[in-house]
Amino acid sequence: MVAVDCIDCAADASVVNAVNEGIEIARDIKSLRRPWLMISVNDDEDLHFRKAEFDPEDCPADCSRPCETVCPANAIAFHQNTTLGISNGAGTPRMLKDGVITERCYGCGRCFPVCPYDKIREVTYVRDAIATADLMKRDDVDAIEIHTSGRQTSLFKELWSALGDSVGYLRLIAVSLPNAGDSTISTMNEIFSIMKPNLQSFNLWQLDGRPMSGDIGRGATKESIAFAVQMANARVRPPGFLQLAGGTNAYTIDGLKKEGLFQTPSVNKYSDNATSTNGSANSSQALIGGVAYGGYARKIVGRALRAMQSQHGVAACVEDHPQHLLVALEEALALVGPFKFL
What we know:
two-stranded antiparallel ribbon; TIM Barrel; 15 strands
């Protein structure tokens, strides 16, 4: 059965609990190997760690509300006391207020430039290292992804030191960084030298091409493909798997294939050993080992949730209508299918 390797979420105990609950619900519907759960942190200000914020009472009554239209996560709402299918912790739906639904906002920033009255603010945050270290010691957290700007390594070193021996509890350490041009490889080598003394797990480099844009269209993945090509041409790279992110969508794999940087695993039915196919002879040993789908995956899930709410009301919970979750699950499996046959 095809399955994803990791599910990434915020480094927050309540979010980790919710994701684990969701995983088990999905596995009840369809038999799946349990994916690893990965928590995300940042060492500095980062696009992935921000929220939109505004006071809806300041919005003029005649505003056309383009922010609500442009939001890909349906995180801006003017519902006037509508209940939402997000639990308040006691198992009951919570009342939805006008404005930004914080739980849904993932900081894409598309609402900022469209507000005709410049009312929307950007709120950034950095995850607490001590609280993160405690989360990493839980037996239901398998990996961590550290977002770094790549501009300097001092902040990464400070965070890594604060995480302490908690890194020893994990199966995978991932570092997500943008393309900084010629300095990217040297930055990666510096970061690896910081991690190496107490790195006891797999490590992975997430190449963040065009953050949070995968749902826009075919062109959004060009920067992630270009990042992959740059890594392929680099003579000296630090150890670790490479994974694409930022603008990744249904067109990313085709782009990798055109560059000879993608191979799919196939298993001979008479053997337990996997063999690589579908790559050129000089394909850099299938340089890119995986793809992270963020905005595009949200788009898939969002379609299923909107279909459910149109049939059963905005307060409907997906747990009560698993047929809609199954639709999203089947589409997600088709997306990751080219990577593995498990």
